[in-house]
Structure formats: C-alpha cells, structure tokens
Amino acid sequence: ETGVTQSPTHLIKTRGQQVTLRCSSQSGHNTVSWYQQALGQGPQFIFQYYREEENGRGNFPPRFSGLQFPNYSSELNVNALELDDSALYLCASSQGQGETQYFGPGTRLLVL
Amino acid sequence: LAKTTQPISMDSYEGQEVNITCSHNNIATNDYITWYQQFPSQGPRFIIQGYKTKVTNEVASLFIPADRKSSTLSLPRVSLSDTAVYYCLVGPFSSGNTGKLIFGQGTTLQVKP
What we know:
With 112 residues, chain A is mainly β. Chain A is built from no helices and eleven strands. Chain A has strands at 5-7, 10-13, 19-24, 31-37, 44-50, 53-57, 64-68, 74-78, 87-94, 102-103, 107-111. Chain B is mainly beta and 113 residues long. Chain B is globular, with a radius of gyration of 14 Å. The termini of chain B are far apart. The A-B interface holds A 2, 4, 31, 33, 35, 41-45, 48, 55-56, 58, 88, 90-92, 94, 96-106, 108 and B 34, 36, 41-46, 49, 87, 91-106.
C-alpha cells in the first residue's frame, strides 16, 4: 500500500453535472498529480499541485480544475461532465515536483 | 520527455524469468528510467527506478546498458499474480521539474499456469 487514498471509489453522474474527487497524499509528500485513464489506455497527466499551487498542466480543458490544501490533500473538480469523461481518475503523491510518484487506487467515474 | 517503445504483450509461464525491454533512443542526460505495474482498475504501482547499469530490489531487477537507449525489466520466477500491465517511463525525476509522467500503452504480461 502506498498510503495515498482517494474517495469515492466509484461514482455515477449524468452529462452536464459537476463532480469533485478527493485525494489524500502519503505522509511527508507535498506534491499531488492527477491522471485520467480511459479503458485500455495508459494514464494521461491532467495537472500537478506543489505546495498549494498548480505546477504544470496537461492537455485538458479548463473545466478540469483542482485545489491543494495546506495538509497537501487535493481535489479534482470537473464541470459540465461529458460522456468521454468516463474513466479511472488517479491521484499520485510525491516528495517533490519531480520525485517518484506513488499512486492511489483511483476513482472510477461513469458519466451517463 | 523521451518517448518509449515496449512490446504490447508478452506471455510466460509460472516459475519462469520474464524480461521486458523498453527502447528510449532519445533519453536525455538527466532522465531516469522508471517502471510501474498496474492491475485492472487499480493505480499503477512503482516497481523500480534506475539511471545506469543495474538496480535490484526485492521485486525486480533493472538492466541499463552504457548508452542508456534501452532498459530491461527482469522479473524472476513469475507467478500468476504477476499478470498485469507494465509501463516503462523516462523523465527528469529530480527536484525542480514538473513531474509529468507520460505513459505509453505498456506491456500486458500474461502468466499462464
């Protein structure tokens, strides 16, 4: 176990709704990265948070946003959900921006 | 980040040693090589990381030749529970760099009884 936790484990939403996913980083880690993994594909980088600030972003629209809190936990928010947003959302924490990342179990989101 | 190429799939039998090779011809001087294992509907699990020569831990070994243009993950005596997708990544894993991991398709390893 990595010590990275995510909630909820599963979620079903309808198109147009908004969703918030949560991640608690491993003790001693100040950096959290979020990834989207569609079925049969490798994870795709969404963005990274380092000490409460966004530090790098992948090719995702602005309706994907995030936050990092003083305890280094993080949230991923997705507005105006689309069917293609159905995926496994992964959170990874690390000791620094470029350090080895340890992943949580993921949140499975289904958009109907 | 350097692009990696690895076989889409591999088959093996229980008790055999499995070697998965990854090509990364454009690896940069400050790039490290990292391997992750992923089971269905779970997050990737860190296996091993190295820069050059050989690295060994309790799970696997990583062999990196002098030119660093490829690397080989070696899994000794695999079991059915080693059936998973294995990802090879290269990147500047050092402080000050955005830790954007670029995952390819990975190698699906099927271990048979």
